[in-house]
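User: For a reading group we're discussing how well predicted structures match intuition. Take AI-2E family transporter. Before you show the prediction, I'll give you the sequence so everyone sees exactly what went in.
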Amino acid sequence: MKHYKSELYFLLTLLLGVMVLSFLIFKPFLYVTLLAIFIATVFYPFYLRMLAWVRGNRGLASLFTIFIIVVILIIPLIFLATQILQEATQLYQYLLSDEGVVAFSTSMDKVIDIMGGVMPIPAGSSLDAHYYIKQGLDWLLPRLSTFLSDIALMVMNAFIFLIALYYLFKDGPKLKKTIVRLSPLQDVHDEEIFNKLTLATNSVIKGNLIIVLIQGAMAALGFFLFGVPSPVLWGAVAAVAAVIPGFGTALVVAPAIIYLLFNGETSSAIGLFIWGLTAVGLVDNILGPKLVERGMKIHPFLILLSILGGLALFGPLGFLFGPLVLSLFFALSEIYSAMHKEHQDKL
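Assistant: Thanks. Here is the predicted 3D structure of AI-2E family transporter, as structure tokens, for the group to look at:
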């Protein structure tokens, strides 16, 4: 008996050490693997359709699915990130130029005069928004530059991402069966956990990400049509602002309208105002209920906190991982509550 215990403790210690070493080995590729799992979960129904189309050839279906993902998702994101970096750089250089400083200071003086007619403002007050915008761009540019400049790392991560996607599609059912077999939980609870995780993942995509991306794209289109500089950059900012409860894209569209008014472009300002109310503002009201109705409903304020916290913890991918972790927390809490209730009923 003692011999058995010593062997067991030794084996557990050895297993723990190997697990730690394995984690350190896979740590550099952890985020890209999680992202692959995230994308594979969302596109798995499409993969099943491709599988039926190619008559059960899993390898071929995986390749076709990955090709579609590259065309409709990865390539547009690369162009978008490049365009945002270019426009942010141009705006940064303009704000530092003499022309930019004079134009911005003049605009801020007009804002103060208008606000002075509405509310009392102490004499000598000024809005140093130029400073805050410059600080924001100082934060944004290095991160975008780092993201785009390390070509070798990007290529390696992209390669790992695509290989992971291929095997997740091709061998996903086998991997799922292995996890269920090794799990100490009952198979029914394992299946429920997988269903909840799939629901949570799709909720993040359909209930939040797609909506804010559409709103950002519509805002960028409006900025382009009505002559607002750097439309893609401000459209991206509008997409981030769309997750803020109660205000959303108005935090970006309203200053753009004011900018057009200050520059004497009244007709464009009116057009952008109408565009913001209809094309941008109604996206959440029209698409939101249709996309969220089958997903997990989480309060918008919690979604906002999860995005901000995710960005701080995970970096750029935190925009996805933050809401996903929050969704998984609620899903697992729901499963735990059901298991606890089932146990109590048996007693």
